[in-house]
Structures are given as C-alpha cells and as structure tokens.
Amino acid sequence: MPLYCNCSILGANIPRTLGLGTTSDKYTLSQSKASGSASLNLKSSNTPPTHIAFVSKFDQSFSSPIMEEDRKMFGLVSEPEEYCKELDVAVRAVQMACFLCHKQLDNFIPKSTSNNHNSPLKVAGWSIKAIVSWILFECLGGENVSIVTEEDVQTLSNTNASELLEAVVKTVNECLAEAPRFGVEEPKSALGTSQVLQIIGRCNSVGGPSGRFWALSPLDGIIGSSCGDQYAVALSLIEDGEVVLGVLGCPNYPMRKDWFSYQHSYLRIISKLTSPTSETWNEGCVIYAKRGSGKAWIQPLLHANKKFVWPNHAKQVSVSSIDNPALATYCQPIEKANSSHSFAEGLAHSVGLSNQPLRVCSMMKYAAIACGDAEVFMKFARAGYKEKIWDHAAGAIIIQEAGGMVTDARGHPLDFSKGLYLERLDRGIVACAGASLHEKIIDAVDASWVSSCL
C-alpha cells in the first residue's frame, strides 16, 4: 500500500529557522513548504524506511526520503531511528480517525445516553477500529499487525446489530475515500460488509509480555464526545511489554489554555467562529512520541480540503517547569464511577494543589501535561476496577518523552506486559510534569493511604 510523501529534492537539506509565535498563542507557527512529490511503498522490503522530518522548537528544517539517502552518504545524518515508519503510519491513522470523529460527531446532539446502539457514537467507535486496522495492515504488512482494543467484533456481527453494521460500513467507505488526503492510497473498490467485519476482527489481540501489538482506544471519553467536550483517539505500539510509541488525537483540544475554562457549548462556538489559517489552529491536534527520543510533538488536525504534508506544522512540546504545588494545575477526571474523587481531592488539598482543577474527560489529561497546560493528574480507582492498557499507554509515553513522569501511586513504572489490564497497578496512577512534583505527590499518597477506604 503506497504512502505518499511530499518532498523537495533541491532544498530538502537546507535548514530554516521558523518563527515560534507569541506565548499567548502557543500554536502559532510559520509554515514549512515543500514542492514536488515522491511515492514510497512501505510494504516493499527493498524500500528504505520513511524518514520523519520534524519541526523543532529552535532549528526547524524539512527533510525528505530521497535527500536523506544523499545526506547519509556525506555523513550528515545517522541511520533512521527505530519505529520511524510505524510512527509515521500511526500518526496518519489517528489523523484519519479524528477526521472521521469530526464528520460523525461535530453536529451530534444526543437525544439519550450513549447506550443507544445505533447512535453516531457507536458508529464512530466501530468505524475508527476499522480505519486504524485497515491502515496499519495495508501500510505495515499484515504479519506485523496485532491490535488489542475494547469490545469483540462479535458484538457488531450479531443479527440485532444489522443497522449499526450497515452504518459502520457506509462510514468506513466514506472515510477511506478521503485516504489520499492523508498520504495513503484508498482501496481499489468499496469495502463490503464481510470485509469490514474481517478488518475489525483483526483487533483480537490479548497483549502479553512478548511480541508486538498495537493498543487502540477508539473513542476515549464517551461522555465528552457526546457533548462537545474533550475526548481522544489513542494508539500505541507495545513491544515485549514496553510501550515504544504513542499517538493521541484530541479533536476538541483548544488552542489556548484559558479556553479550557469555557463552558462546553461556548468553547464549541468560539472555536467555530475563529477560523484557522495556514499558520494557526484553534481546535484539535495530534500529539505523539516514541521511546528514547526525549521529544514529543504536536501537529494540528487536517481540516477542510487540505492535504497532509509531513510534518503538518508540527512543533515540539514539553512539560511545564512548575514544581511548586501551589502554582500547579491539577487534572481531575469527570467520571466518578471508576475513580475516587474524594480521596484525590483530599490529597490535592494536603499537598497544596490550590488552583481550580481542570476537569476533563479522556486521555486529553495526558496531552495537557505533555503540552505544559497542566502539571498533575491523579486517578485512584475504586475497589474492583481494573485500568485498561489502551487507556494509558499512549499518554504515558508521550508525557515521559516530553520530560514528565508517569507511575503507579507507589512510584513504580506502569506494567503493560500482563495482558489487557494494568494488573500490578498499586493504588492508582500519578502523572506529573517533573520529578520534584511527582515525589511530593507520591509522599502525600503514602501519608494518606492507610486512612483511606480504597
């Protein structure tokens, strides 16, 4: 399956320093342009791995697959790092998933709860599984693709789900027709019902300590997605029990931190009234990182009829330098069913987190910490609840590569090698912008745990 990359043959290795904008508009960037085109077949064993060109904070430059080989001959760059091809494909898959979300949910007003089996939420969730599975399978080769996610395909193939399945097939084909905009070749013909079920059926991995598999959360934060609030599409690659790359798509992520405090409907209105340009975006992003890079990146979602050209105005992000709890912003889950708000709030008070908490749905909390918009996230599950690996893997590696820390509440690394759940999770999860702040939170948990009822 070809994946198309724009490149500039003559000017690819000429560095450019781009403007970073102002601090009040954190996503203002100058545009990096490229001309010409090249086609790269990711499935060919004779094709060199895709080189991913990032726009860094200080020395932005554009690089191409063709020029990269020439530069290597002169010793100007090292060999492409591990997982570059996988990250490139994963980012495009999440971009397409977010495009699907906007199309399905942008004007959705729920008439009842999300349990409506034929609601746009259900259609979007299943369709995202199909889109991500199809892209990974076609671009990386079927033998390398194994996906763990929620809900078995049998739910969709039941006889009483025929209307839902029909809607999913229609949505998947409409989305795949747009694949060339994202640099991926579309199917030669529309996918049929059996093909869509087969594609989703590949999402049947059970994880484990060995081998390679992807973890997908197709619609994390179902409450947020149903009311215009925050939600996320999360995709991560886990190899031999270790997360090696993570991609988070946040369709409603605001451009400015102060927009987080707006009431949901007002945020939706102001985002629509403020039109994005080629150099800024007002809503929605994809954040990603890979293990050992020490860097995390953010790029805007693809809007209107534009084409995806790597790096799509990407910008490096990093965690906040705040280590004083009194100045830190604390992310608090909205959902109360699977977490103890009272213990977390008491802990926040005892450690000195005095700012109003940022109450948001989904893994967007991880994105907020990685981008420096918040400093602390704590979650302490109620007895009997098990955290799922796809709800944390992508966010954890992104924060870590952006300079932060994510552990269980005893300070141990999260263990993604035990199957579908974080089986050895001790007490809860703590994510912080830095080691100093993290240590203070862990100490406060130790001091308060015995008296808790968790």
TrEMBL record:
Q: Which InterPro entries match?
A: DPNP, Inositol_monoP_superfamily, Inositol_monophosphatase-like, Inositol_monophosphatase_CS
The entry lists its GO molecular-function terms as: 3'(2'),5'-bisphosphate nucleotidase activity; metal ion binding
Q: Which family does it belong to?
A: Belongs to the inositol monophosphatase superfamily.
Q: Which SUPFAM superfamilies match?
A: Carbohydrate phosphatase (SSF56655)
Judging by the UniProt lineage, the source's domain of life is Eukaryota
In which organism is this protein found? Cajanus cajan (Pigeon pea)
Q: Which CDD domains match?
A: PAP_phosphatase
Amino-acid positions noted as binding Mg(2+) 1 in the UniProt annotation, renumbered to this chain: 150, 219, 391
Please give the catalytic activity noted in the UniProt record. 3'-phosphoadenylyl sulfate + H2O = adenosine 5'-phosphosulfate + phosphate; adenosine 3',5'-bisphosphate + H2O = AMP + phosphate
Which parts of the chain span the membrane according to its record? none
NCBIfam families, from UniProt?
bisphos_HAL2 (TIGR01330)
Biological process according to GO = phosphatidylinositol phosphate biosynthetic process; sulfate assimilation
Kindly list the positions annotated as binding Mg(2+) 2. Answer: 220
Q: What is its EC number?
A: 3.1.3.7
Name-wise, this protein is 3'(2'),5'-bisphosphate nucleotidase
What keywords are annotated for this sequence in UniProt?
Answer: Hydrolase, Magnesium, Metal-binding
Q: Record keywords: Metal-binding included?
A: yes
Would the keyword Cell membrane be found if you checked this record's keyword annotation? no
